[in-house]
Amino acid sequence: MSVKENMLEILEGIDIRFKEPLHSYSYTKVGGEADYLVFPRNRFELARVVKFANQEDIPWMVLGNASNIIVRDGGIRGFVILCDKLNNVSVDGYTIEAEAGANLIETTRIALRHSLTGFEFACGIPGSVGGAVFMNAGAYGGEIAHILQSCKVLTKDGEIETLSAKDLAFGYRHSAIQESGAVVLSAKFALAPGSHQVIKQEMDRLTHLRELKQPLEYPSCGSVFKRPVGHFAGQLISEAGLKGYRVGGVEVSEKHAGFMINVADGTAKDYEDLIESVIEKVKEHSGVTLEREVRILGESK
Fold first, then answer.
1. Which of 58, 82, 126, 289 could form a cystine bridge with 67, CB 3.0-4.6 A?
2. What does this protein do (predicted)?
3. CA-based angle 6:8:9, to the nearest 5?
4. Burial class of residue 257, CB neighbours in 10 A (0-12, 13-18, 19+)
């Protein structure tokens, strides 16, 4: 029996797509094929996939909803797991529990509907709840570490564990999950009661700021670089004269220099080459070495 036949038999009922182009799913609109692209409907299907992959020694990874990544043009070998069907969100008093695939922006709107405050900072951050926990996503002075109570994870060995916020050792765009190889299944957020009107006004204000400053009309991976100590990446890039600087079909946004946008059928290689060039030119101009926030995954073509 071939690997594919064995897979279809053991993972029967799970949505698996073979040799699926990832550019259809990534925010940058770039990326080669995944050997096996999987859409589990619940944590049990996810655990079955991970267990099978481990038994068969097939590599696997979870992409969240692919908002802050660049998938290389050669694609990704093994299983690529998208968790957008694990998207249940529930409210219990002042606590919101959201599955990993829940849309982060929609989760902040659910907090608004229940007049719960603390989640406003995330109202414009694209991505999933799981990815936000993984990266300790943040904006406008807030971050996931400020509100996370606990999360359930699937370990790389296929076991389910509950971790407290302290266990995650949060830092700037960092959590311990990045080293452990675990997968976020769900997260609990501790919020506070607030005024619906005040919360909505703040979310409207932050959304307006985002629309003014960010090039939302183009495919991009969001903020490309981490904030350097004492500086802002976008400002350093702008001061180096790099707004509008292009490699292939990808360019530094004129609207916000911290973003790189796909304006003309760019490739992952265009992104990588542009990132390296910007790092080099900013270093020459200011002496500051920018560090990538975006994750680059997969194989070169």
1. 126
2. Cell wall formation.
3. 65
4. buried
When pLDDT is averaged across residues 38-49 and rounded to a whole number, the result is: 93
Strands 76-82 and 60-64, how do they pair? parallel
Three-state secondary structure call for residue 62: strand
Which domain does 116 fall in, by range? 89-211
Same domain, 257 and 288: yes
- For residue 5, the model assigns a pLDDT of 83
pLDDT tens figures, 245-297: 999 999 999 999 999 999 999 999 999 999 999 999 999 999 999 999 999 99
More confident residue, 210 or 76: 76
Instruction: Name the strand (E) or helix (H) holding 163.
Output: strand 160-164
Q: Tell me which residue of 15, 5, 27 sits closest to 295, measured CA to CA.
A: 27
DSSP 19: E
Q: Which are the catalytic amino acids? A: 173, 223, 293
Per-residue pLDDT of 112-141, as tens digits, reads: 999 999 999 999 998 899 999 999 999 999
> 189 and 279: one domain?
no
Return all residues near 260 (Cβ < 8 A) that are at least 6 apart: 220, 221, 224, 250, 251, 252, 253, 271, 274, 275, 278
